């Protein structure tokens, strides 16, 4: 089976570095799907969810990333994001707190300038995404023996 | 002839000093290891961004009209200064601050006074040094401390610096930090941060697949090279600041470790010396007492 290498790096660590079958990630102008032998590509990514498929028809793993950049060359997809967490690592409470803060800010919308509203809205979106992802994830299944 | 009781006290206090400095030495080397491992896990991200920037440069080329590349006549300078919060780390702070003194002299020669300097400071030592000399501190990053190694601080500082530059509050931004070359070598650096002078076009950076792109055809850049470029540049600047933070902190810890090792060695040496003097004094007094007793006994007979 054809695969390619996916690397996800953040300022804190290398979050992911393994061979995968298919990846879908959020670009700033729409979602991108990458399969083995994709043409060289460079783009900026938006905050959102990365979907990772290790094997054909296998389970889809999810990961939350914030803004960053993606590059495909020589059958390696590298995503450099300013933050990233695999779904099972997500601390749902942290995002709940984030949501609360964002909603509080938006409640006093009249006192904020446009930019602050935008930031709060993005924060809220991130908070909701984080909760959804974290909420439906289980502990990682051992995948080494499956393929 | 020092008195015996006094000597005993001095020996005890020197031994205590040695104990404390040894503990500090160990703490510093532990912290140094932590910083080093943090630096190691940070490197892939920087390398990736540098690689991307290098590849992009082939498509974007030099654009001197970009705001962050704009060279202006230098009338005021912003300085990002990295010092430590605490002392007892040898000449670490003095070395960095010597750079500031040099810059001031340099500016004076160009007819610019201290008023043309705006400082962005990390570390209490640097902050109080600047204040004592009445230099203008634009921003002091006190919390979280450098030791927390929080990337958000780098992001914030980078944003402040870019803002100061683009709003023309300053015409140049320099960073003064300490480069960590090895555990026994740390060199103060004074580097230009803005306007950007990245070596564009020479394929900078260490992407793991160092192969060059085969022509522009077939390489998708979305939405556009310029758009990506303008997004990536601020991120790249953040990593430059964080890198300076990491190497400064590593240098501080290494410098403190060396200073404390020196202090421990000196205290141990002194302790040995004092003990020798003490023993001699003790023996002398015993001999004297014996002589007295013998003398007394002889007199009685």
Largest sheet of chain A: 5 strands, mixed
The Rg value of chain A, from CA coordinates, equals 17 Å
What is the count of helical runs of chain B? 5
Q: How much is the radius of gyration of chain B in Å?
A: 29 Å
Oligomer: heterodimer
What is the spatial order of strands in the main beta sheet of chain B?
3-2-1-4-5
Report the principal-axis shape of chain A. Answer: elongated
Strand content of chain A: 35-45%
The CATH superfamily of the largest domain in chain A is known as F0F1 ATP synthase delta/epsilon subunit, N-terminal
Instruction: Quickly give the CATH architecture of the largest domain in chain A.
Output: Sandwich
Q: What structural class do the secondary elements of chain A suggest?
A: alpha+beta
How many beta-strand segments of chain B?
A: 6
Largest sheet of chain B: 5 strands, mixed
Q: Specify the CATH architecture of the largest domain in chain B.
A: 3-Layer(aba) Sandwich
* Series of secondary-structure elements of chain A, N-terminal to C-terminal: EEEEEEEEEEHH
Helix content of chain A: 25-40%
Beta content of chain B: 5-15%
Largest interface (C-beta under 8 Å)? A-B, 26 and 30 residues
Query: How is the CATH topology of the largest domain in chain B named?
Result: Pyruvate Kinase, Chain: A, domain 1
- Could you name the CATH topology of the largest domain in chain A? ATP Synthase, domain 1
Please state the overall shape of chain B, judged from the principal axes of the Cα atoms.
Answer: elongated
Question: How would you sum up this structure, described in words?
Answer:
The complex is a heterodimer of chains A (147) and B (301). By secondary structure, chain A is of the alpha+beta class. Chain A folds into two domains: 4-87, F0F1 ATP synthase delta/epsilon subunit, N-terminal (ATP Synthase, domain 1, Sandwich); 91-136. Chain A is 27% helix and 38% strand. Chain A contains two helices and ten strands, in the order ββββββββββαα. Chain A has helices spanning 92-107, 114-136, and strands spanning 4-9, 14-20, 22-27, 30-34, 41-45, 48-53, 60-65, 68-73, 76-81, 84-86. A five-stranded mixed β-sheet of chain A has the order 2-1-9-8-5, with no helix packed on it. In chain A, strands 4-3-6-7-10 form a five-stranded antiparallel β-sheet, with helices on one face. In chain A, β8 (68-73) and β9 (76-81) form a beta hairpin. The longest helix of chain A is centred in the C-terminal third of the chain and has 23 residues, at 114-136. Chain A is elongated. The mean pLDDT of chain A is 85. Chain B starts with a helix and ends with a helix. By secondary structure, chain B is α/β, with parallel strands linked by helices. Chain B has a five-stranded mixed β-sheet with strand order 3-2-1-4-5, sandwiched between helices. Helices cover 58% and strands 14% of the residues of chain B. Chain B folds into two domains: 4-18 and 263-294; 25-199 and 221-259, 3-Layer(aba) Sandwich (Pyruvate Kinase, Chain: A, domain 1). Chain B has helices at 4-60, 92-109, 124-132, 151-166, 225-300; strands spanning 77-82, 117-122, 137-141, 172-182, 185-194, 220-222. The A-B interface holds A 7, 9-14, 27-29, 39-44, 67-69, 71, 73-74, 76, 78, 80, 82 and B 41-42, 44-45, 48-49, 51-52, 55-56, 151, 155, 207-209, 211, 213, 218-223, 227-228, 231-232, 235, 239, 242.
